């Protein structure tokens, strides 16, 4: 699902409806995940980018300005704020969200202790490459997401990286793939799953619970 357009006028904080953002589709169960994405290269309208920038906190603006890819960093913050606002039925202004980081440096929503206007079971995670920013959302369950470029170049060979970070069975599975392009694709499939899993504490070289040959 692509990023919704920014509000044409700033909403009002304090729990009032942020009418410019349409509500998100309903998450039916804790096993359901919605992924919203945007492609930075497709957003070049200065007025639109300015509206997104106005949603950021002062700290986020400062952090984005310090990044080499300022536009990408700004859009990453805007994506999580607009997406999360939609899953509160727009009861929370995107600018009103505050965040904290857990011990694994994963961002989480910092809910006001006296705010009972929305359920507090909303979880998210965000990842980006130079060509895409993605935000995953779930209810009642923690979520991790990782995005990688399919043609990303590595400084070391796939086999050496697999031996370093993957389990022996996973490394052997990759070694048995003779086609280099197919091997690279399978490597990044495993890599994204492991990076996603590592958001909750396990090390990259922990086994991933799947059969790679299926």
TrEMBL record:
InterPro entries in the record = 4-PPantetheinyl_Trfase_dom, 4-PPantetheinyl_Trfase_dom_sf, P-Pant_transferase_sf
Q: Does the keyword Iron-sulfur apply?
A: no
Task: Please give an example of a GO cellular component term from this record.
Answer: cytosol
Give the GO terms filed under biological process for this record: lysine biosynthetic process via aminoadipic acid
Tell me which domain of life the UniProt entry assigns to the organism this sequence originates from. Answer: Eukaryota
Name the Pfam families for this protein. Answer: ACPS
* The UniProt record lists the keyword rRNA-binding: no
> Which residue numbers delimit the 4'-phosphopantetheinyl transferase domain?
143-194
GO MF assignments = holo-[acyl-carrier-protein] synthase activity; magnesium ion binding
What Enzyme Commission number(s) apply to this enzyme? Answer: 2.7.8.7
Q: Which keywords fit this entry according to its UniProt record?
A: Transferase
Q: Which SUPFAM superfamilies match?
A: 4'-phosphopantetheinyl transferase (SSF56214)
Top EC class for this record? transferase
Q: What is this protein called?
A: holo-[acyl-carrier-protein] synthase
From which organism does this entry originate?
A: Lolium multiflorum (Italian ryegrass)
């Amino acid at each position: 699902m692509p990023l919704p357009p920014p509000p044409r006028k700033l909403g009002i904080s304090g729990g009032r409806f942020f009418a410019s953002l349409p509500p998100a589709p309903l998450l039916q169960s804790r096993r359901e995940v919605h992924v919203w994405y945007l492609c930075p290269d497709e957003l070049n309208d200065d007025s639109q980018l300015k509206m997104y920038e106005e949603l950021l906190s002062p700290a986020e603006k400062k952090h984005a300005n310090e990044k080499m890819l300022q536009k990408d960093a700004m859009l990453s913050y805007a994506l999580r704020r607009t997406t999360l606002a939609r899953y509160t039925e727009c009861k929370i202004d995107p600018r009103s969200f505050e965040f904290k980081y857990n011990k694994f440096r994963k961002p989480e929503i910092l809910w006001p202790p006296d705010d009972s206007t929305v359920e507090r079971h909303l979880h998210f995670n965000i990842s980006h490459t130079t060509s895409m920013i993605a935000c995953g959302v779930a209810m009642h369950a923690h979520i991790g997401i990782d995005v990688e470029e399919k043609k990303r170049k590595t400084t070391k060979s796939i086999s050496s990286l697999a031996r370093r970070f993957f389990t022996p069975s996973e490394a052997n599975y990759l070694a048995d793939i003779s086609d280099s392009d197919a091997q690279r694709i399978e490597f990044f499939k495993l890599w994204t799953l492991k990076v996603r899993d590592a958001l909750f504490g396990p090390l990259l070289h922990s086994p991933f619970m799947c059969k790679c040959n299926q």
